Amino acid sequence: MAVELKKRRPRPSWHKLTVSRVRALTEDAVEVTLAVPEHLREAFDFKPGQHLTFQRVEPDGSEVRRSYSLASTPRELAEHGTLRLGIRSIPKGNFSGYANRRLQTGDVLEVLPPLGHFWTEIRPDRHYGSVVAGSGITPIIAISTAALEAGARVTLLYSNRTETSTMFAEELRELARVHGDRLRLHHIRTRTEGATPLLTGRLTPERLGDFLGSAVAAGEIDEWFLCGPYEMVLGVKEVLEEAGAREIHTELYTV
Fold first, then answer.
1. Options 1.25.40.80, 1.10.287.110, 2.40.30.10, 3.50.50.60; which CATH number does 15-115 get?
2. Which residues form the FAD-binding FR-type domain (predicted)?
3. pLDDT in tens, 127-139
4. What's the Cα-to-Cα distance from 60 to each of 56, 57, 96, 108, rounded to whole Å?
5. What is the CATH number of domain 127-252?
6. Does pTM top 0.90 for this prediction?
7. Where are the beta strands (DSSP E) in the chain?
8. What share of the chain is helix, strand, coil (3-state, %, to 5)?
């Protein structure tokens, strides 16, 4: 009897990438742009929604590894050789604090090629919906941008404390300007007044149910992407399932 042995996939290896830009998004979040040399672009090819893992040795010799989602699209990598990430500083966050306060253009970071299952094959005939909170917008803006560029429709419900704490606000406005009615963008404000009473206050399952009844029907959306803290994602998923949503992708995030 012949036994066929399947080849094991090689383990991903660390690469050194240079920081080409650090840009403030909010008072506690930055966008980090990495330059990818030509010979590594194939290794760093990715699907919108995937993440990078970073490795850093602390002054005391301890090793820190953290993963952050990509905010850019594969087209940006192919055309410009860059990858962009959004990193929000969190309490006691060794890497996020370092990225927000000390990271500079020209610094070199150790990075693993993209990983993760929070993605789909983008199709122009689909309508993609997202419910997201805080820094969970990072993979969602990559997915939404790729979908809009492909000709698809996008509905995005985005919860933040205030307008000034909203990551990638400028990029979202530009997407709305360029793609018009194919992007339906709804901002929820939890600590200031939103555009309507429905968009003001914490995103509870009850509030989402009211939103689905008035602004968008769950059945209109072909695929949903949920990204944020555990309780929000779980509650939203239950509401969407009860409303008859067909396909739901989830990612848990510290926002």
1. 2.40.30.10
2. 12-121
3. 999 999 999 999 9
4. 11, 8, 17, 19
5. 3.40.50.80
6. yes
7. 15-26, 29-35, 51-57, 63-69, 82-88, 108-115, 127-133, 153-160, 183-189, 223-228, 248-252
8. 30, 35, 35
